[in-house]
Amino acid sequence: MAAHRCNIFMLVFVLCGLTYVFVRADIEDTNHVKDAESVAVDIAPKANIGASLRSTKTEDQTQAAEEERQWEAETNPADAPSDNKADHVHDTMQNLDSRPAPYAKDQTQEAAEEERQWEATEVKEADRVPDTMQTPDVPPLTPAKDQFQEELVIRPLHSGDIYASFQFRTMWDTDFLRGSKVSHYRLFPKSLGQVISKFSVRELHISFTQGYWRTMQWGQPFLPSPPGAELWVWFQDTVTDVDGAWKELTNVLSGIFCASLNFIDSTNTVQPSASFKPLGLGNVTDQRFLRYAVLPREIVCTENLTPWKKLLPCGSKAGLAVLMKSEKLFHSSFHSQALHFRPVCQDWKCKSTVWELRQTLNVVFDLHTSGQGKREWSLFKMFSRTVTEACPLASSSKVYVDVTDNPQGELFELSPTTPLLSQAVVLGDRRTYSVYDLTNQATFGQTRSLNMLLRWRAAESGDMLRPLLHGERYVAGYGLQTGEIHTLMYNNHPYRAFPVLLLDTVPWYLRLYIHTLTVTSKGRDNKPSYIHYQPSKDRLRPHLLEMLVQLPPNSVTEVTMQFERALLKWTEYTPDPNHGFYVGSSVISALVPSVVAMDTNSTRECPLFSSFFPCKEESSYFMRVYTEPLLVNLPTPDFSMPYNVICLTCTVVAVGYGSLYNLLTRTFQVEEPSPGLAKRLANIIRRLRGVPLL
Amino acid sequence: MGLLSDPNRRRALTKLLTRLNAPICVMCYLAGVAWFMGLAFEPFTLRTYMSENAMGSTMVEERFPAGERALATGREFAAHKKKVGGMPVDWLVKTMQSRGLEVFTQSFTRKLPFPDENKERYMVRGTNVYGILRAPRAPRTEALVLSAPCSEGNNNNQAVGLLLGLAQYFRSQIHWAKDIIFLVNEHDLIGMQAWLEGYHHTNTTGGDWSPLQGRGGSIQAALSLELSSDVITSLDLVLEGLNGQLPNLDLANLFYAFCQKIGVLCTIQGKLQRNDWDTTSGYSHAAQTMMLMVLKQASGRPWGDHGLFLRYHIEAASIRGINSFRQYKTDTTTIGRLLEGMYRKLNNLLERLHQSYFFYLMPSLSRFVSIGYYMPAFGLLAVILLLRVSFHLWDNRGFYFYLTPSSPGVLSILTPVVISHMTGVALYTLPILSQEMAVQHFPVSETEAVVLTAIAIYTAGLALPHNTHRLLQGEGTEEGWRVLKLVALLYLAVLLGCTALINFSLGFILALSLVPIAAFITPHTPKALSAAIMVLLSPGCTLLYCVFVFQELQETPVSLQDGWMLFLSVISQGILDHALYGSLVYPLLALLIYPCWLLLWNILFWK
């Protein structure tokens, strides 16, 4: 694979050296970002940030080299997010940088531009190989064929709620693409493996979410997802009939996850041109192989959780999965379970790829509904279970607790204490975590079970840093004829502007008036630098609108668009038509300037020489924000009285009006008495003969 | 047979219609009135029932315990209100936040077209505070609203206290599927209008408000709570909204069902329900209740803060606590339980309320008259107009009147039509436009200036026929007034028909007064008597009667003097309602009904 990509790289390099030079600057940006993050995560003494971290670390800890090793080991799972993020960054930079150009130019130039752009993309894709190779997975992955890691991150939120995020990673070292039939499964779930190899899936991302992530109260989630079900798939470029494969795949997944994914059809499937780029290795960015669909109406419940748990190597029998009891998981403010499948490098040389299956489950538990209103959380209170062992199949099994806001333990008290600390840059913010290693028996202590307890000391936690980006959406207007969709995007950064990609998918029965599209920020017209609009076709495909908009600092950008509500055919209404029709969330993808770079005047103790120039390396991170879905009422006939309306009216018209009208308008004549039998017979004979009747 | 196709028989039919026209018309009129009065008779009405399955048989247990604490919160609110001298925004924000709501504020300013003397306000500046209880695991697509106005003086403190108490109690429950918005609005309807327009990002009446920050999706239902005492004797349900719109009957049913279940006295139009329908007093009680509803609906104004929700297709009602001298008292905990039950049931809704009736009249809380029952009363009145059209279309022998060459030109018909509509436009625009001038020249306040200008223009319209005729060449002909009358009859029929479809009560009251004069007015009737009758049955005088009847029905009869003052304030309120909330009654009367009446007036003075 790597060699293949290298070839492409060389080829394209030779072919368009000029373009390469042109784009080079951007790539270097990306490389820097990537470097920085992996560095920060791995605490290698490479960059000054790393150095500073290291110094604080050495101050904190008095333990010896053994401890040090532990440090490095525990950062190992954390490199996955960095990987992930770096790819994001890469992709988005690619989009953000290369896409706008064609739209600035004339239509006539567009073809040529388009070509150039593709080349540019290729170059970058190819360029990713050395890129990824630079990602120093410092302790090289063990040559074991398959691998399983599990972790749980607990983040106390400022609102008093608590956020628990499970991540399970299964590595699958196999090559189902080369036609070799895979029949041996060790850790990787067979049901999924078969589906993936049958449909030649390169990447698969599926999420089921019940509830809406409250960005303004909770900050950023580790993995965002829209309410309902979301599915997006990159197929291999060998697939010829992508639509057919997509159709079958959704039906199969529907069976696997007990979800209504079979309702995904052409009317809610789109091919976004820029918003959803592959997250794993891959040189395919042709959107023909991408399918994206959202079912905002999907309700997630235990029936979806059980099959999801069954995909884990230990099931819910051992390890962290023991905590996932549905009666508690669904007694929460937010529940989201997801599954991501993608190719990643096997080792730092990236000679070969392995397939990564990452299962995540995010839950937010509510302070108020959990009773007593006491600010106190424990594993038992959250899950009504405690952890007693790691999954025996897992190579690493850890629980992280976010203690960033609580360095001296003045905000809350965490017991039992753990000597292990870990630092990572997560979503542009430097976070500190207490780590509980479940593979180490000492973690469980005397009681043979781990039940962490967080007890708040202060009644109020400090103010939360406002999330730099968040979005809102609503329907304006009244009446059942027209309406207006408003999408608000908030840039809360005090001085940095940044571009965002907005993706809007609107069903066909809301007829968008695209000429009414306006984008305003701070009362002024804000011209998007890139617009991709695909009009809907009735009963065939939805509207797709993608825009690249620059958000000025500290501003609200409002995107409005008017629509007309279509009158459906009477069989097209849902069984509960007066409930309204859902419009899926819009997706805002952005490279957000990071908080770390923002605090130039920090009181944090760090060497002066390290903080003069704003750290370019960590300057931005990728973020995806989903707005709330919309519920729109369409003009609905009164289905409740078909009998009255149809039957009664018809009866009245036919019997009452008809007879009266006859009575009023017809003149009647006396008919001759009916002919006798003989005459009738004679007439029949005459008719047969074709002679006039008597 | 062949009544219509056979010319001879058809002539016989038309002959019958023309000969017996007047008696048939009188019969129809009497039958219409009788039918309407019969609607209040219990055997003719239907018992209310819950149509919505989601709210019907599901079990809800009400456990709201904290009535006393809610009252304490209310007192605290009152103290802060007094200290700030208005809406205690900061205190409310802090209190709602501590109850775990997402809190937002909205500020608004509104300049009234002329000072409102009833409520003593002109430049209105205020703030709405609302907190959203986010339903767990719900995607912010649906919401319910509970609102309480922050009123002047000592009113409604208990309502705000109960609202905050309910917010705290609801927050600790897990079963909410819809976001619940707790809204405290300042300056009653003006604040509500600002909030609703902000929520839906519309601007129908040119108000000035700051945009809303937080939303909860499409609002499914709303209740507005008014409570001014610690204990109450009964709860009154107010349904009539803007332009005579009513919420779905299921909302009233829900309220009634919970009052029955919890054992709270409940009223509608402030009238308790009686069981003695077969006695005269029982019947007249029901008739009074229904007439009150008809009058309130006909006024087209919102009779509570809920009234503005209806425009946005949000089912809403106001619940008003009444404390009279009765022995039996209900405490706040019970009202809290009642509201809890109602919200739990509304929370169960899978669809918008749509199963039950939107057009109904209620002679009592447990009885209703649906549109199918009350429309014939209007139909009987409206058919008179058509009968008169046929009367003027056919002569006594059953032939059509054909327009002879000497028949009046278009001009002679068009002139009165145009001129009377111009008068209507003047009546609609001038009062507000000319208020400054009037204030300068006469010793009156702005409000009086507006009302008196309106009455002056209205009266000046009576002089029109004399002036119109000067514009016409020559004498008016016999055919002239016949054609004009045909136009007026058809015009009135269309107008009343449309009005009755939207707002039955208004249409019916207007038909009651206008149909007789429209039917029998000709230039040949005795001038003085007819003129007197016409003036007495004009829309303005109808309004005056309605004021008196309304006071009478509310058991607060007024003297002539007070009645006149009330009449003046009703006119100013009507104009204000139009300017502030977009009520359509004033423009309808000024631009359409009044010109139509002027046409009839023209016919009377046809020369």
From TrEMBL, chain A:
The keyword Signal applies. Residues 1-25 form the signal peptide. Keywords: Signal. The gene is PIGT. One of its GO terms (biological process) is attachment of GPI anchor to protein. Residues 56-72, 82-91, 114-130 have a biased composition (Basic and acidic residues). It comes from Oncorhynchus tshawytscha (Chinook salmon). This is GPI transamidase component PIG-T. InterPro entries: PIG-T. It comes from the Eukaryota. Residues 52-143 are annotated as: Disordered. One of its GO terms (cellular component) is GPI-anchor transamidase complex.
From TrEMBL, chain B:
It holds the Pfam family Gaa1. Pathway: Glycolipid biosynthesis; glycosylphosphatidylinositol-anchor biosynthesis. It comes from the Eukaryota. Keywords: Disulfide bond, Endoplasmic reticulum, Glycoprotein, GPI-anchor biosynthesis, Membrane, Transmembrane, Transmembrane helix. It is found in: Endoplasmic reticulum membrane. Gene3D superfamilies: Zn peptidases. The keyword Glycoprotein applies. GO terms for cellular component: GPI-anchor transamidase complex. GO terms for biological process: attachment of GPI anchor to protein; GPI anchor biosynthetic process. Its main location: endoplasmic reticulum. SUPFAM superfamilies: Zn-dependent exopeptidases. InterPro entries: Gaa1. It is a multi-pass membrane protein. Heteropentamer. Part of the GPI-anchor transamidase complex, consisting of PIGK, PIGT, PIGS, PIGU and GAA1. Interacts with PIGK. Component of the glycosylphosphatidylinositol-anchor (GPI-anchor) transamidase (GPI-T) complex that catalyzes the formation of the linkage between a proprotein and a GPI-anchor and participates in GPI anchored protein biosynthesis. Binds GPI-anchor. This is GPI-anchor transamidase component GPAA1. It comes from Oncorhynchus tshawytscha (Chinook salmon). The lineage of its organism: Eukaryota, Metazoa, Chordata, Craniata, Vertebrata. The gene is GPAA1.
